[in-house]
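for the record, two folds in this file. i put them one after another cuz i was lazy. first one right below, seq on top, C-alpha cells after. the second one comes after a little note so u can tell where it starts
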Amino acid sequence: MEKYTAEKYTRQIMLFGEEGQEKLRKATVFVIGAGGLGSPISTYLAVAGVGKIILADFDSVELSNLNRQFLHHEKDVGREKTTSAEEKLLSLNPEIKVETIKEKITAENAGSIVPPCDIIIDALDNFDTRHVLNRLAVERNIPLVHGAVSGYRGQATTVIPGKTPCLCCIFPTSFKKEVFPVLGTTPGVIGTIQANEAIKYLTGQGELLENRLLLWDGLSCSFSELKINRSENCPVCGVNKRK
C-alpha cells in the first residue's frame, strides 16, 4: 500500500489491518438512492476508501431535499442528484471511482441496469423498488443492506441470500407511496449504520444485522431489535416458492 494511502486510512487500518483496507480498495458497492440515506452511506464509504461506488438515482435536487440530503447544496438545486453526488464524493476522496446510473430501476430493466458488485445498499424511499432490488439480490446471491426512515424513526437489516430472511419475508406487501415527514438526523443514523454494515461485510469484521431488524426511535433516543425468520413460502427466497 502506498504511503499516502496508508496514512489517510491509519485509524481504520488499526482496526482491520492493511489486508482489510485492501479489501475495501478492491470492492464495488452499488448504492441505489442519492438522497437522505444515500448521502451518509456514500460519504462514509468514500472516506473509508471503498474502491468503486456505483450510485443510482433518477431525480434532480429540490430545495426541500436539503434538510437531510447533505451531498447536495443550495447551488445544486435543479441538477441531477447523481452528478451533484459524484462531484462531492470525488472531492472527499479522489482516489476512489464513482460511477452513476441516471435511470429509474423497474422490474423490467433491473436485470440489465444493476451492475456486478460485491454488495447492494438500499437507500430508497419506496417499497415497490425495494422489492425489485430484493428479488435481484436473491437471484444473484448478492448481500443487500436495507434501511428505511420516516419521521424520527428508522430501521435496518442485512439480507444474506440463502441464509437470512429477504425483504419479502419481512415485508410481503408494499406500502402506499407517499410524501412522509423526516428529520435529517434520522437518515443520518440509519445511513451510517448501513455503511457500517457494508464495511463490516467487506472486511469480514464483527456481526452483521443478520436475522435481526434494528429499530431506531429518535424521540426516545433508543434502539430495539426484532428477531426475523425466513418464510418457507416466500415467493422470492422460500424453499416452497415453486410448490
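(here's the note) second protein begins now
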Amino acid sequence: MKRVVIAGVSGAIGGALAQRLLQRDADTRVIGLCRNPDAAPEPLRTEERCSLLSWDAEDPASPRAVAEALETVLGRDDGIDTFIYAAGLLHGQGMFPEKRLEDLESASLARAFAVNATGFGLLARALLPWLRHREFKRIAAISAKVGSITDNGFGGWYAYRSSKAALNMLVRNLSIELPRRCKPIACVALHPGTTESALSEPFSQSLAKLKVHTPAQTADNLVRVLEGLGDESNGRFFSWDGSELPW
C-alpha cells in the first residue's frame, strides 16, 4: 500500500488511517479527499507525502474534479494500489438516527445515501483509470455491522442502516465487475468497530457498555485486515478483527 487514496480524510477514522499508513512505510504516498482540506489533521497538512484534495460526497460533480486534480498529483500509469472510502454520515443538523418509522424524513434519507453510498460509487468510477495497472489493488469501503441485512435484529436507524446496506451492495457489484477489468484486485467492505469520533459522540452513554477503540487503534486494526487481503478476499465483508460478517 504505497499509493493510497482515502476519502473522508478529515474524519476520525480516515485521518487516523492516513497517518498510520504514512508512519508504517516511508515510501507510502497518500492522497486525502475531504470537503475542506484545511480541516484535515495537522500532521497531514504538513506532510510532504500527503496531498489533500477538495471533495464533497454530496456534490455529484465533485468526483470529476477530483480526477482532474489527481492528474497533476499522480500519473495514471503509476496508478493507485489502495482506495479507502472512509466518509460516513450518521447524524447532523436536523438529522438524527430514527427510533421509529414516524421519524423517517426524505431529506435525511437522501443525505445518508449521498455520503454513505453514492459518493463511494461515483469516486470508484472516477478513479477507474488509476486502477488498470497490473499490481494487486485494494478497494475498501468502511461500512458498518448495522448495515448487514442478515444481522439486523433491532430495527431503527433507517437511513444509516439502509445507506450502509446500499454501500455493501456497491462493494459486491464492484467485486464482480472490476476483476474483469482491473485484475488483480480485492474489493471489500470493512466494519471498523465502535470508534471514538464525532459520529459516535452523541451515544457516549450507550457506548459505555461496548468495546470502544480510539481512532489510532481502529486504524491499526483496519491496516492489519487490509494487509491480509488477497484475491480470495474479493467481495467479502470483514470486521475489524478479521472475522467475516454476513451481508
